[in-house]
Amino acid sequence: MGAGRFPHPWGALNWAIIKPFLKQDDRDIIAGDATTVTKSGWKTFGLGRFFSSIYSRAVPGIAFQTLSLINTKTRISWPILIEQILPKPKQKKSTCAKKKKKQGKGRPKGSKNKNHRDVKLNAEMTQVQSMLKQLLAMLKNTLQPDFFVYDGAFGNNAAVQMTRQLDLHLISKLRNDSALYYKWNGDYSGKGRPPIYGTRVDYNNIPAKYLKSDETEKDIRTRIYQIIVMHKKFADSLNVVIIIKENLKTGKVARIILFSSDLELEWEKIIDYYRLRFQIEFNFRDAKQHWGLEDFMVIKKQSVFNAANLSLWMVNVSQATLAISCEKSILDLKARHHGLRYAQELFKILPKNTKPINIVQLFEKIPVLGRIHDKKIAS
Question: Using an 8 Å Cβ cutoff, are 288 and 52 in contact?
Answer without folding.
Answer: no
